[in-house]
């Protein structure tokens, strides 16, 4: 009797919610069972023993007062694991006038981006640091109130790179299934994960000085990362037009590879590399590869593509 048959005979009588009991009835050596079921050494977080001082940037344009830093004292039992927990406690228990953005609380939406102890981060996934904490809004952005900044210009620049698929036959885009091979799909890894939190762009000195409201200004790391994502997408057919729109002394070439964007990105992406690759494509030192797959016909009246899937 082979091992698979023996396991299948055991399964009906095993309580699946008990891992140790399940493993004990399988024909596996005790040494391996011990390794599988042995608990891991989990390092416990030591609770805070002292109160924590949190200094938060405050500004309300309706009061016409100058910005100032307000300090809050939080007792040890009220200190949360994440910085966002501290802000929630301040707003709910100390000062309900404090304004900040938040939504998902798990590093997905990018709403709670702010400057924490001098570094742009997401408050929801930033562990509460030891010692005092200073919290500011994202740098070099117009402040609406407290930690809430105006992101209209940031989103206008994102829209300027036209973040959607563009085809030569625009009238058939919604009717055709656009195929993509696994290899072509892997090319956009590290690009589509961007959550548009603006941590990278607001940490870039070039964006501070040249990312203004003019249409020809520097687009910033976030927008250029997405521009590269659509340029290399195998389903997009307007990569040449996209590159020509970026061929401007400010839009793209204001990047001086300071690489603050890479350090600030909460998703561990590399906008600096994407910008460098865009420059190579504009100087024709690198070209976009042909897609591995052709798209099927819309209906029987259209001729099927003759090119077959490339074998890699």
UniProtKB/TrEMBL annotation:
Cofactors that this protein relies on: [4Fe-4S] cluster; [2Fe-2S] cluster; [3Fe-4S] cluster
Pathway note: Carbohydrate metabolism; tricarboxylic acid cycle; fumarate from succinate (eukaryal route): step 1/1
Known catalytic reactions: a quinone + succinate = fumarate + a quinol
Pfam families xref list: Fer2_3, Fer4_17
Enzyme class: oxidoreductase
EC annotation from Swiss-Prot or TrEMBL: 1.3.5.1
Cofactor binding note of this UniProt entry: Binds 1 [4Fe-4S] cluster.
Record domain 4Fe-4S ferredoxin-type: where: 184-214
Keywords, alphabetical: 2Fe-2S, 3Fe-4S, 4Fe-4S, Electron transport, Iron, Iron-sulfur, Membrane, Metal-binding, Mitochondrion, Mitochondrion inner membrane, Oxidoreductase, Transport, Tricarboxylic acid cycle
Compartment(s): Mitochondrion inner membrane
GO molecular function: 2 iron, 2 sulfur cluster binding; 3 iron, 4 sulfur cluster binding; 4 iron, 4 sulfur cluster binding; electron transfer activity; metal ion binding; succinate dehydrogenase (quinone) activity
Keyword presence, Mitochondrion: yes
A GO term from the CC aspect: mitochondrial inner membrane
InterPro entries: 2Fe-2S_ferredoxin-like_sf (IPR036010), 2Fe-2S_ferredoxin-type (IPR001041), 2Fe2S_fd_BS (IPR006058), 4Fe4S_Fe-S-bd (IPR017896), 4Fe4S_Fe_S_CS (IPR017900), Beta-grasp_dom_sf (IPR012675), Helical_ferredxn (IPR009051), SDH/FRD_Iron-Sulfur (IPR050573)
Residue stretches of biased makeup (Acidic residues): 291-302
Function in brief: Iron-sulfur protein (IP) subunit of succinate dehydrogenase (SDH) that is involved in complex II of the mitochondrial electron transport chain and is responsible for transferring electrons from succinate to ubiquinone (coenzyme Q).
Protein family (similarity comment): Belongs to the succinate dehydrogenase/fumarate reductase iron-sulfur protein family.
Protein name: Succinate dehydrogenase [ubiquinone] iron-sulfur subunit, mitochondrial
UniProt organism field: Triatoma infestans (Assassin bug)
